[in-house]
Design goal:
alpha/beta, 10 helices, 14 strands, seven-stranded parallel beta sheet, single chain, globular, binds uridine-5'-diphosphate-4-deoxy-4-fluoro-alpha-D-galactose, three-stranded mixed beta sheet
């Protein structure tokens, strides 16, 4: 198949692109390189540099010879979205709207979207099923939920075959493709930066959550398992797939196990042998206390099962990339 991967120069996008190429697909990457990296795009992919919100870029890149679109390009920081919601509504919602128009005009009928656990907000029950109420606690989560709703309408009205993958927290690396943001706000890279001697201590955002050790709990999923889910989702779209034309299906993607911020720090100490000092700080706005996935639906529908579920293994993969850099 010939595929467009938006955001293919980012952490997750570059791993998904690599796995698609390995599976024999042809990949065009659309990325404005605002947070992604040119050198993360595999040589066998074609990089088109441009903004997903720009109709001129879209009319150039989104063409009828594409079989499917995998849409990852987005702003994705919970904290930033609270301070600058306009950026999230613009890039994530208006950008996807423009992309969907281009997809429809080009006659492309298959679409896989990277949604988020942040669509749920503070859950009533964990693990979180796809049928749980969606009450996002940040503009980031709200923007992803808006796109999920948009895709349902687009499918029903225009025959799109669409899958939303709701990622929980993604970790680990594939080869040299690891997390690399500037500024970095994510927990595991921040902890490893301290272990690499590039900072004195990691700040724990909130120690008064209603969790066993008082710190926020997240479900960390290996980026390679996440990429496998994209391949399965692509296979599910289209006339012969589980999610046929006119249908939109949402899948959670997580390990089903929760790890607290303190668990992550302990895993990093174990992997790196560094003491990783911590400073206890206040909560970060927009952060729910606990996000743990039930991925039963994608397991039952598409046979997906995470295979690299140990936190220390994910941290060790990320640490290897930090050391290679
Ligand atoms: N945290 C710290 N110190 C840090 C960084 C983070 O204590 O230096 C805490 C956060 O407050 C949060 C947890 O560690 O409680 C995880 O934070 P991350 O920033 O690593 O990840 P988020 O949970 O905020 O968000 C990530 C993705 C989102 C996705 C979400 C789904 O960035 O896109 O996971 O669970 F929606």
């Amino acid at each position: 198949m010939r595929l467009l991967v938006t955001g293919g120069a980012g952490y997750i996008g570059s791993v998904v692109t690599t796995r698609l190429l390995d599976a024999g697909h042809e990949v065009v990457v659309l990325d404005d390189l605002s947070t992604g990296h040119r050198d993360a795009v595999p040589g066998a992919a074609t990089l088109q540099e441009g903004d997903v919100c720009d109709p001129d870029v879209l009319s150039r890149v989104v063409s009828a010879d594409l079989d499917d679109v995998v849409h990852l390009a987005a702003r994705s920081l919970v904290g930033e979205s609270v301070r600058h919601p306009e950026r999230y509504w613009s890039t994530n919602v208006c950008g996807t709207r423009a992309l969907l128009d281009a997809v429809r005009h080009a006659g492309i009928t298959r679409f896989v979207f990277s949604s988020s656990a942040a669509t749920y907000g503070e859950p009533e029950q964990v693990p979180i099923e796809e049928t749980a109420p969606t009450r996002p606690s940040s503009p980031y989560g709200a923007s992803k939920l808006a796109v999920d709703l948009m895709l349902g309408d687009e499918a029903r009205a225009h025959g799109l075959s669409a899958v939303s993958l709701r990622y929980f927290n993604v970790a680990g690396a594939l080869g040299d493709l690891g997390e690399r943001h500037d500024p970095e706000t994510h927990l595991i890279p921040n902890v490893l930066r301290v272990a690499a001697g590039q900072g004195p201590a990691v700040t724990v955002f909130g120690t008064d959550y209603p969790t066993p050790d008082g710190t926020a709990v997240r479900d960390y999923l290996h980026v390679d398992d996440l990429a496998t889910a994209h391949l399965l989702a692509l296979g599910a779209t289209g006339a012969c797939g589980r999610v046929g034309p006119g249908h939109h299906r949402v899948y959670n993607l997580g390990n089903g196990t929760g790890f607290s911020v303190r668990h992550v720090v302990s895993a990093a100490r174990e992997v790196t042998g560094h003491p990783v000092p911590v400073i206890e700080g206040p909560r970060r706005a927009g952060d729910p206390a606990v996000l743990v996935a039930s991925s039963r639906r994608i397991h039952e529908d598409l046979g997906w099962t995470p295979t690299r579920t140990r936190l220390v293994e994910m941290v060790a993969d990320a640490w290897r990339v930090v050391q290679n850099r």
